[in-house]
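Trying the structure run again after the queue cleared.
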Amino acid sequence: MTQTTAPATSSSSPAPPASQNDGRTTERSLVLRLLARPEVGVFLGAVAVLVFFLVAAPPVRDGGSMANILYQSSTIGIMALPVALLMIGGEFDLSAGVAVVASALTASMVSYQLTMNVWVGVIVALLVSLAIGFLNGWLLVRTGLPSFLVTLGTFLILQGVNLAVTKLITGNVATDDISAMDGFSQAKALFASSFEVGGVQVKITVVWWLVFAALATWVLLRTKYGNWIFAVGGNKESARAVGVPVTFTKISLFMLVGFGAWFVGMHQLFSFNTVQSGEGVGQELIFIAAAVIGGCLLTGGYGSAIGPVFGAFMFGMVNQGIVYAGWNPDWFKAFLGVMLLGATLINVWVRRQATRR
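Done. Tokens:
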């Protein structure tokens, strides 16, 4: 008789079905991805500062007041953009503030003392500014010294040269008025004009600020050069090993700072027709602080071009908001210190949270 056996069954219970996604994991992942963006934290901070002053200082709600705030922000933001790119590349420039004044002094004195069209002075100033940036970058890569020491030396040199040369050539601490010289009106239209929007006068620097921010964002996210910036800021030796031109990238970033200094210097010159040779000291810290508040790390390799836009806006908002609120303007630097320290701590916390998974 043939005996049949039933099919063997496993004594172990079948594997439980895959757990259904209730959406919390996806939501958390999305939040973490957003928090990992360097500009998200400063955007929320800028919104908070704006709302605060809209409530605390009613004049801020006026269109003219907001245009003035945007103007103050743009003069900081135009320089904060190349400074931010340089910081992403792992370096920073302490000479940026006095380089702005050096550029304006060069254009003014070349035009006035040599009795030439102001565009000649503008072009010479551009060459001088790019040369200063090149010198900073070249000294950095050739000597291996930290950018702090290299640009601190440049800062002191420019500060002394600005004062000494201006006194030597003009006999004064300020340059002569160039408003009556050939080409002034055309240069003013490019660097320091205004246009009307809804009955409110808006400075052209606001437009240039947004254009430069869009261009810098495109360069960082869509070009090979942007990849080089992040690579040299993260680890320059590893970047060099995979073929990134580290020397070119570092020097060109310093020259971009020189270009920004030239542009802001031209704006100052054609806005006020003359330049005080002792100005600019301390502005470099404002530019760096705007970039740091915008999410850039002093260690390099991390940041964006959009973050410094919001960082500069926060500076302009606080600077003018204190005035519109009728508070003592001496509190401005205290507010800046609180913003800088707070933004740095928030950025550190956000990065830790975003990298846990």
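The two ends are 64 Å apart (CA to CA). Worth checking whether this holds up in the mutant runs.
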